[in-house]
Amino acid sequence: QCKPPLKVKDLFIDIQDGKILMALLEVLSGQKLMHEYKSSTHRIFRLNNIAKALKFLEDSNVKLVSIDAAEIADGNSSLVLGLIWNIILFFQIKELTGNLNRNSSSSSLSSGPSGPESDTSHPNTPSVERNMSVTVKDQRKAIRALLIWVQRKTRKYGVAVQDFASSWRSGLAFLAIIKAIDCTLVDMKQALEKSSRENLEDAFSIAQNKLGVPRLLEPEDIMVESPDEQSIVTYVAQFLEHFPELEGEDFTDPDKELPIESTYVHIKDTPSEKEGKILILSESEENLYTVNHERSHPAPPKVHIHDNPE
Fold first, then answer.
1. Is the model's pTM score more than 0.90?
2. pLDDT tens across 206-224, in order?
3. Is residue 67 domain-resident?
4. Are 59 and 47 in contact (CB under 8 A)?
5. Which of 58, 91, 124 is the last residue of a domain?
6. What percent of the chain has pLDDT over 70?
7. What is the pLDDT of residues 135-175, one digit of tens each?
8. SS3 labels along the chain
9. Are residues 84 and 144 in the same domain?
10. What segments bear the compositional bias annotation Low complexity (predicted)?
11. What are the backbone dihedrals phi and psi of residue 231, each rounded to the nearest 5 degrees, phi first?
12. Which of 101-105, 232-236, 262-266, 290-294 has the least mean pLDDT?
């Protein structure tokens, strides 16, 4: 978005003279930084450019710990990624969720392994990066606000989102968010008949082509045992930009359960070893259905049964 545009081919190399970093911060903050940039092959000038960018971040209350200009100039991958994540968190996620009334507690996102402390103890997060943060409390509050927003937008379509990791593997959560923005773009019943890969591909394509949400993820990024929370948070936060009415929504009671308007389920045979997760639905004496149901979620008050007449 710079004028003239700048292209990043290799983040770890291109960031080393400070130009990309200063340009990024200028675009995100709306303040002028590039006039202080000095192009030179000499290390002292490159360090000076980076130091100015880091000083700007500190003045903006982005607290950076255990990092200095030399680490960025040397292309230290762990520190560069940690720095970029904090910029994303502060200038996009924290800013976008700022309109939400975040009186909720800053406690854990979920009880799963990718939840409560995932922002500070993610297994793939370098230890040095964990020491760099806007503050752990601010980070949790911003991510929790985003999670609550997602839950309220997807729950009416029968999609339960517990975290920013495994809850997204099926692709249904992404599709539900899109449907909440424009109900004509997604058919949830059709989505249930598709594979996870198809749903993820549909979601990312529709979001980019119909809503203008940049495609930051690919199905392969999500179809893993432990999808990267930070990547999903970054991507999902973009959808907030398409909800200008959010400021008027009430977020003062994040733990209040909203009713599920409808839930679509598959009818299928279930192995005996999974009987502990069976929900029995009986329309009448003649019709008895069994469907898979996660016990960790409350049973929906209304369920649509769709199968072949035979």
1. no
2. 999 999 999 999 999 999 9
3. yes
4. no
5. 91
6. 65
7. 667 777 888 888 998 998 898 888 989 999 999 999 999 99
8. CCCCCCCCCCHHHHHHHCHHHHHHHHHHHCCCCHHHCCCCCCHHHHHHHHHHHHHHHHHCCCCCCCCCHHHHHCCCHHHHHHHHHHHHHHHHHHHHHHHCCCCCCCCCCCCCCCCCCHHHHCCCCCHHHHCCCCCHHHHHHHHHHHHHHHHHHHHHHCCCCCCCCHHHCCCHHHHHHHHHHCCCCCCHHHHHCCCHHHHHHHHHHHHHHHHCCCCCCCHHHHCCCCCCHHHHHHHHHHHHHHCHHHHHCCCCCCCCCCCCCCEEECCCCCCHHHHHHEEEEECCCCCEEEEECCCCCCCCCCEEECCCCC
9. no
10. 104-118
11. -65, -45
12. 101-105
Shared-domain flag, residues 66 and 145: no
Q: Are residues 142 and 83 in the same domain?
A: no
Residues 147 and 225 in one domain: yes
Query: Is the peptide bond preceding residue 4 cis, with omega within 30 degrees of 0?
Result: yes
**CATH code: domain of residue 155:** 1.10.418.10
In a domain, 249, yes or no: yes
In a domain, 304, yes or no: no
Domain identity same for 145 and 232: yes
Q: How far apart are the first and last CA of the chain?
A: 57
- d(CA 288, CA 79) in angstroms, rounded, equals 57
Which range among 52-66, 131-145, 237-251 shows the weakest confidence by mean pLDDT? 237-251
Token digits for 8?
């990043």
Domain residues for 56? 11-91
Given its phi and psi angles, is residue 20 left (phi above 0), alpha (psi -120 to 50 degrees) or beta? alpha
Among residues 200, 231, 239, the alpha carbon closest in space to that of 218 is found at 200
- Of 233, 179, 167, 227, which Cα lies nearest the Cα of 203? 179
Q: Is 257 a residue whose pLDDT tops 90?
A: no
Asked if residue 157 is part of any domain, the answer here is: yes
Can you read off the two tokens belonging to residue 75?
Answer: 């292309």
User: How many angstroms separate the CA atoms of 34 and 48, rounded?
Assistant: 13
* Structure confidence at residue 222 (pLDDT): 95
Tell me, yes or no, whether 64 and 171 share the same domain: no
